[in-house]
Amino acid sequence: MSILVYIDIANGKIKKATHEVISYGADLAAVTGHTLIGVAIGNCQDSLEELGSYGLKEIVHLGKEMERNAPSEADALAITALAIERKVKTLLFAHTLSGKLLAPLTATKLKAGIVSGVISQPELGNGFCVKRAVFSGKAFAKIAIKTDVRVLTINPNSYPVKQVAGVATVSTAALTTPPSRIRTIKAENTAGALSLTEAGIVVSAGRGLKGPENWGMVEELAGQLNAALACSRPVADAHWRPHHEHVGQTGVAIAPNLYVAIGISGAIQHLAGVNRSKVIVVINKDPEAPFFKAADYGIVGDAFEVVPKFTAALKKVKAS
Amino acid sequence: MKILVCISKTPDTTAKIAFTDNNTKFDNNGVQWIVNPWDEWFALVRAIELKEADPSTVLHLLTVGEADADPIIRKALALGGDEAIRINAAPTESQFVAHQIAAIVKAGNYDLVLTGKETIDHNGSTVGGLIAGETELPFISLATKLDCQGSKLTITREIEGGQEICEVELPVVVSAQKGMAEARIPNMRGIMAARTKPLKVIEPTASSPYTETIQFELPAPKSGVKLVAPDQVEELVRLLHEEAKVI
Ligand SMILES: Cc1cc2nc3c(=O)[nH]c(=O)nc-3n(C[C@H](O)[C@H](O)[C@H](O)COP(=O)(O)OP(=O)(O)OC[C@H]3O[C@@H](n4cnc5c(N)ncnc54)[C@H](O)[C@@H]3O)c2cc1C
Ligand SMILES: Nc1ncnc2c1ncn2[C@@H]1O[C@H](COP(=O)(O)O)[C@@H](O)[C@H]1O
Predict the structure, then answer these.
(1) How far is C-alpha A310 from the geometric centre of its chain's CA atoms?
(2) Taking the CB of residue A172, how many other CB atoms lie within 10 A of it?
(3) Quick check: B13 and A243 CB within 8 A?
(4) Is A137's C-beta closer than 6 angstroms to any atom of ligand 1?
(5) CA A90 from chain center: how many Å?
(6) Which of A248, A257, A272, A47 is nearest to A159 (CA)?
């Protein structure tokens, strides 16, 4: 019996969230005694062998000559076939755009129970019971999966990555499933290399910044922190920033290690998308801003003064 | 064209989240219910726009829920659509919901099934894909733009690190997100019309549960903010490095 991890490759690169999923799979394999297998599909510039350093010993690489931007329904069929062949009991995906496409399609094919956005190892005492965030991060639910085969998607930034010694053995095979019925006409990159959901640090700004022309200092701070950029909803609605940076209940939900909120009031709908961040820093000139109640560290002050100082202080630390 | 929009009932975005019965049930007390924003703002409005462009389009709204979902599906009907269907069952898990919807999709020969990106209470992002899986229709996830020429759809969808424009022949299942349409506010005429539009109640088909929610939990409260003076930003950097260990 085995556990199958989907290796998420976008634009030829292994997504960081995959490392967390492998660590999750390795820990689960250690408890259940199941074999851990990885499946990668399409061209990959990164070394798959090196994924051994997260505890993955065996990888099946399908269609390695195929250039592609995103997974398709053909992958779901290939994963299903492999899962049946290898007697897979647990399939693991990252709860990313790819996982959101592939996990439900695979679950139906395998008649497997699916739980998405999982944040911890299962309790195995009485069946198979996992925890996930619900109500936009305002609560958690414990869910028991009753089927023999199960599909989980693991929330990015919620499972610690563990490094071990080792390299993975990679075997290759052709992708023999029928091609997707969906034809890609054009693909384009819009975001930076690090996606918002995967970023360990996120720097976010709101209406307090007055206008798009003031984002330079936010970008500089993000640059120093190697952070992804985010914004509040009115900022995206006013087209000061692109829509994909909008975080919150009706935007992207994130859970970075550090979230820096600049000139954002902390409305309940904004908090709903960021409240699972491990550490929250709030910079706001209004001491009554609701965001301070959800923050770990705060500076009551004018962003236009504080943010450049923050960047300078980080530069100084780096230089020393 | 025949369109089905999947509508889910969720607590208002400002609702207080609490549980009863030893944290096994959501506390309905004082909670306002709304149409799930992703379903209303993007999936439904885009479907209405397609119908406005081609009045021969048949537009049905569907919810899986008990009788307390009626006011919500009527709210959605006030924006547009010809009729609503309610599958009379509590939406206990995504696979059950998808199974019910898939049965309607197959029996009704819909060309386009639209769901929202996710529900703001369950946050599963799974129902759309599960419907596609069961009906064996192509699934396009997280679409930001959708255009239709005859039986061909051109869709822009979000992929890792960017976006993709793709084409597909109907019938298909699409999950909709921001960008797809601009949210609308229902007008008086729509609200009046919604009262008399048909709302068909259908009993669920049997299915055994795949999962079961055992218990809820609230997050531990934050211990309180540590304030740093605006002229001491170096101190914040030190705290983040040495105390919080996040940089
Ligand atoms: C159904 C629904 C869904 C929603 N979903 C979302 C969502 O997903 N995400 C989201 O973000 N919002 C969402 N909202 C909107 C939300 O309610 C708030 O309106 C929004 O988050 C406010 O954005 P903001 O904090 O940038 O702006 P404001 O509320 O205007 O706050 C600006 C803040 O900047 C501070 N400020 C001003 N000048 C300075 C300065 N010089 N230096 C430092 N601080 C300064 C002010 O004190 C204030 O606190 C939703 C609303 C609804 C009704
Ligand atoms: N009870 C329901 N009735 C009808 N549609 C639903 C229901 N629950 C979820 N959906 C649809 O499926 C989408 C994704 O839901 P979820 O997988 O729960 O995040 C929603 O945006 C709705 O369009």
Answers:
(1) 27
(2) 13
(3) no
(4) no
(5) 19
(6) A257
Q: At how many degrees (to 10) do helices A216-225 and A303-319 cross?
A: 30
pTM of the entire predicted model? 0.96
Q: Collapsing DSSP states into helix, strand and coil, what is residue A205?
A: strand
- Residue B154 corresponds to which amino acid? T
ipTM for the predicted complex comes to 0.95
Summarised one tens digit per residue, pLDDT across range B59-98 is: 999 999 999 999 999 999 999 999 999 999 999 999 999 9
Query: What is the C-alpha to C-alpha distance for residues A132 and A155, in angstroms, rounded to an integer?
Result: 8
Q: Residue A183 in 3-state DSSP?
A: strand
Residue A111, classified by CB atoms within 10 Å of its CB into exposed (0-12), middle (13-18) or buried (19+), is exposed
Helices (H) and strands (E) in chain B, counts: 7, 15
Structure-token pair, residue A174: 């052709």
CA angle B200, B204, B206 (to 5 degrees): 165
Q: Is B126 in the pocket of ligand 2 (CB under 6 A)?
A: yes
Map residue B101 onto helix, strand or coil: helix
Q: Is the CB of B65 under 6 A from ligand 2?
A: yes
Q: Give which of B155, B113, B158 is closest to B134, Cα–Cα.
A: B113
Pocket test for ligand 1, best of A204, A214, A233 (most atoms within 8 A of CB): A233
Digit-coded pLDDT (tens) for A32-81:
999 999 999 999 999 999 999 999 999 999 999 998 888 999 999 999 99
